[in-house]
Amino acid sequence: MTETNLRILLAARPEGAATLDHFRAVEEPPPAPRPGEALLRHRFLSLDPYMRGRMNASKSYAKPVEIGDVMEGQSVAQVVEDLSGTFAPGDWVLGGKGWQRFSAVPVHALVKLDPDAAPPTAHLGVLGMPGTTAWAGCTELAQPRPGETFVVSAASGAVGSVAGQIARRMGARAVGIAGGPDKCAYLRDELGFDDCVDHRAPDFPERLAAACPDGIDSYFENVGGAVQQAVWPLLNDFARVAVCGMVAEYQGDLQPGPNLSSVLRKRLTLRGFIVSDFPRAAPTWRATGARWLRDGTLKYREDVTRGLENAPTAFLGMLTGKNFGKTIVEIT
Amino acid sequence: MTETNLRILLAARPEGAATLDHFRAVEEPPPAPRPGEALLRHRFLSLDPYMRGRMNASKSYAKPVEIGDVMEGQSVAQVVEDLSGTFAPGDWVLGGKGWQRFSAVPVHALVKLDPDAAPPTAHLGVLGMPGTTAWAGCTELAQPRPGETFVVSAASGAVGSVAGQIARRMGARAVGIAGGPDKCAYLRDELGFDDCVDHRAPDFPERLAAACPDGIDSYFENVGGAVQQAVWPLLNDFARVAVCGMVAEYQGDLQPGPNLSSVLRKRLTLRGFIVSDFPRAAPTWRATGARWLRDGTLKYREDVTRGLENAPTAFLGMLTGKNFGKTIVEIT
User: Fold this and answer.
1) Cα torsion at A302, A303, A309, A313 (round to 10°)?
2) CB nearest A264 (choices: B237, B268, B272)
3) For residue A275, what is the nearest residue in chain B, using CA coordinates?
4) Does domain A129-277 bear CATH number 3.30.365.10?
5) Pick from B259, B272, B274: CB nearest A255
6) CATH entry 3.40.50.300 includes domain A5-125+301-330
7) Could you read off the pLDDT of B162-218 as tens digits, one per residue?
8) Residue B261 to residue A246, Cβ atoms within 8 A
9) ipTM of the complex
């Protein structure tokens, strides 16, 4: 093999906003697989907001990436070599590790994909971790009910776009919050959201109130910050808030939270979660979502950047909402 | 009948802290019961923190008291007259209404009490609304489990003292937070709390941390403010917070809440409640608590002020922690 392993490392820990200076690209020989491992050539890398937390020194719900280590991430890949014989060269698998072109991964940690059943990239987004997060957050936490109003922020993103579609299936009126008129039009016209409000509009709080004339019964929180502050007064008694992400605050700009007297007065339930808290959600959603993809009732959009060397730029853009759909890097 | 009906009215709405000037006493003739109503002579009035919310103009989970109206509250009373024949004169009942000596109340809204089974005042505290609140908050929300650490604030109060005892029964280590060494000694030595921390100590956050070496798995919130801020960093992953009251902030001194990134990072569940959200809790707790009172394993303490005219002073004292036990006014 003459190709090198392009790898994107964490070069330094950000204080506040991350920049390109916090990443560093290196070229190394591909790793040599150990017994039980397959050598993978990554084809598509998933970029997700949680990765920003891994750049900090403090433990979040997972260990930080160490300085000089490869950035954490999941890829769909093709098998180059598997001495165990579990996979054949060219097989598509989910489970490539890190922002890099090659990885050597234990075969038991790989999931074989059928590229004819669904595009491999779907397993990074709509059917993968983000879609499963939407499924768990809706069915276990937000629990939208018929006749209720469900609101999701970062609604055109990989999680939010699926959450809104699931909430509509569960019978609720789904209102998205997204950045810009194009995303809002897409959510309304393509994905069937009942309404969508642009959080960049100067009168965003008033527009959100107008879009939710009966208040908000469940809120799928992906953003925090000013969006959260606009949602809060609209929450109805007994509303459920699924706290999935707060991407507006990942860069260190922590806002004061809502005073908890609102939690008491309105008898709110707030609950934080990550997808691995619900291990049964992944197989359930993979089967359910695949069925809806096949019958055409579940829709998704990908924002694909070509070239692993461009992953840092794509990642930073995603953190500020420049992406439009699931952020993916095609590894050339 | 020659006695007058002493009544304590809301004289003005407080801006910030309530004072004696916000109350006004009047003497009027006792009310004339209408068909279906019994005339009651109140014997013991319950004073509870929720009443502070009723003094504000804004709707909380219940309507405010109007200026010039009698303050809201519940009493145990004796029947003076019941033309329906449901109750005999002298019968003890729960259900007297308002800070006043007499009320006329529909007989269907009254609960007959057996003064030989439990002291009538127990139905205002340990077996009544506060005890039921503790029961619902523990069993439905905080859900302390064996081996876990349970923390309750305002721990010597009517709700907190029962909550800690229930949490111990449920197998958890119960740590109280109370104001002053006397209250802490009482909770440890008399009620069997595993530990108690004085929130007035200058190094309260460090003391609380020392009292919870394994962190906090469930927190019964009665106080808010600085106590809440000291509890927050100690919450463990998957901790449950039952938001029952925030008496430190009822006087208008609203603190910023915790940033919700902690809810996400630690996968917390926060849930607000009032006792009427759980209608089955009252009969369940009345029977359970009465059994524990009879066998001597459930303990309580009352802080009784004599004279309805002193109710405003007793109420204001309770809001700043001057009471020691369930606050009750004996109506002479």
Assistant:
1) -140
2) B272
3) B267
4) no
5) B259
6) no
7) 999 999 999 999 999 999 999 999 999 999 999 999 999 999 999 999 999 999 999
8) yes
9) 0.87
